[in-house]
Automatic annotation (TrEMBL):
It comes from the Archaea. This is Universal stress protein UspA-like protein. SUPFAM superfamilies: Adenine nucleotide alpha hydrolases-like. Residues 8-154 form the UspA domain. The lineage of its organism: Archaea, Nitrososphaerota, Nitrososphaeria, Nitrososphaerales, Nitrososphaeraceae. It comes from Candidatus Nitrososphaera evergladensis SR1. Belongs to the universal stress protein A family.
Length: 154
């Protein structure tokens, strides 16, 4: 490892509605305040395979996107209340909010590459043992396949 490691300049933090993801978001903001890194907050909506009875797949996808919009609004409010950073205000850091569709791990990895992120921050899945072995986890897949460092926040 080289002796001089540059500070992070672009952080991608993946969020969902979990407590671990909110902690990852807070950590990304605190780290950015120290390093001056820009943050891209990414929420991935997994497209439904089929709608439930009486609900079309398109309606379900629209509902999931609206939930994502609500989550982003909550995070914007959180960053303003906890860190004093208002949306659109000029500060030492920039936070962009994105919602994309697809397989969460693949979208996170692809988005990090496309944005030249030098750090990905994700919340731990909270799964372990047999459940993680059978289902896998987004944080595990991202940490194994990302081309930049990955910080998993518990």
């Amino acid at each position: 490892m080289e002796g001089n490691v540059a500070p992070f300049t672009k952080i991608l933090v993946a969020v969902d509605k979990s407590e671990h993801a909110v902690r990852a978001f807070d950590y990304a903001v605190r780290l950015s305040m120290v390093t001056g890194a820009n943050i891209s907050v990414l929420h991935v909506v997994t497209p439904p395979v089929a709608g439930e009875e009486g609900v079309s797949a398109a309606q379900l996808a629209d509902s999931l996107r609206k939930e994502g919009d609500h989550l982003i609004a909550q995070l914007k409010s959180r960053v303003e209340m906890q860190f004093g950073i208002r949306a659109g205000e000029t500060t030492t850091i920039t936070i962009d909010y994105l919602i994309k569709e697809g397989s969460p791990a693949k979208v996170i990895i692809t988005s990090a590459k496309q944005s030249d992120a030098d750090l990905i921050i994700v919340g731990s899945s909270g799964t372990s043992g047999v459940k993680e072995l059978l289902l896998g986890s987004v944080s595990h897949a991202v940490s194994n396949h990302a081309s930049c460092p990955v910080l998993i926040v518990k």
